[in-house]
């Protein structure tokens, strides 16, 4: 008799747990881990600058979602993440270095930048409590703080060298972006509003700014 009672209690508790697990959360949030990969272009380059090969970008971080409509289709989401940029370019060494080299020299360079990024998104999605697959449009602004910057270059006259760029770059980058799509895959565009290089820190004026085009992935 006791065994039957124990069995009844066990089945009842499992049934209750299953019911609770299937309950619909009408106050759902779309807190998400994000990852993006992009092709990086330079805007407003010096006249003697051009890019070669594939300049890659990578970001990763987390968003906290704050819905502000009853159906939770609209929200604001601040985030925190890390960004890495590798820009490959053919550029006169004088366009990067301080004016210590008398003869211009063509180089193949790779500018590697590391940022702590702080985005904030204004979001629309047609999500429901029952499904995590939905259409979305996310637009936002992003502030990025420079952690480190380095230039690696190959030159016929100067050889292979590496140069720390941190003191010649703007500490902060600001830009706007938009991502849109369905479920996990979302085209992504970021437009930088701030020059990468600090004014008067390069031999030739360099007002290059960033344009990133790629894919952004949101993971619940």
C-alpha end-to-end distance: 47 Å
Radius of gyration: 25 Å
Mean pLDDT: 80
Order of strands in the sheet with the most strands? 1-3-5-6-7-9-10-11
Q: How large is the share of residues in beta strands?
A: over 45%
Q: What is the share of helical residues?
A: under 10%
Q: Summarize the helix and strand pattern as letters.
A: HEEEEEEEEEEE
Q: Tell me, what's the shape?
A: elongated
Class per helix and strand makeup: mainly beta
Task: Describe, in plain words, how this protein is organized in 3D.
- The chain is mainly beta and 220 residues long.
- 9% of the residues lie in helices and 55% in strands.
- The protein contains one helix and eleven strands.
- The protein has one helix spanning 2-21, and strands at residues 32-43, 50-51, 56-63, 66-67, 74-92, 106-125, 135-155, 159-164, 172-182, 185-192, 209-219.
- An eight-stranded antiparallel β-barrel has the order 1-3-5-6-7-9-10-11.
- A hairpin with a 6-residue loop joins strand 4 and strand 5 (74-92).
- The protein is elongated.
Provide a short characterization of the protein structure.
The protein is mainly beta. It is 9% helix and 55% strand.
Task: Using brief descriptors, characterize the structure shown.
eight-stranded antiparallel β-barrel, 1 helix, mainly beta, 220 residues, disordered N terminus
């Amino acid at each position: 008799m006791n065994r039957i009672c124990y069995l009844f209690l066990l089945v009842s508790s499992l049934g209750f747990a299953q019911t609770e697990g299937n309950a619909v959360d009408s106050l759902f949030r779309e807190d998400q881990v994000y990852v993006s990969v992009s092709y990086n272009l330079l805007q407003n380059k010096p006249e003697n600058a051009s890019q070669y090969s594939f300049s890659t970008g990578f970001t990763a971080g987390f968003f906290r979602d704050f819905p502000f409509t009853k159906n939770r289709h609209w929200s604001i989401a601040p985030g925190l993440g890390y960004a890495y940029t590798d820009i490959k370019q053919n550029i006169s060494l004088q366009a990067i270095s301080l004016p210590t080299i008398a003869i211009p020299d063509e180089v193949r360079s790779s500018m590697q930048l590391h940022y702590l990024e702080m985005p904030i998104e204004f979001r629309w999605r047609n999500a429901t409590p029952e499904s995590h697959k939905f259409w979305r449009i996310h637009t936002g602004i992003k502030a990025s703080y420079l952690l480190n910057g380095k230039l690696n270059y190959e030159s016929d006259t100067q050889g292979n060298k590496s140069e720390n760029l941190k003191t010649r770059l703007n500490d902060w980058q600001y830009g706007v972006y938009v991502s849109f799509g369905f479920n996990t895959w979302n085209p992504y565009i970021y437009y930088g509003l701030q020059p990468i290089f600090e004014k008067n820190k390069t031999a030739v004026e360099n007002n290059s700014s960033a344009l990133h085009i790629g894919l952004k992935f949101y993971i619940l």
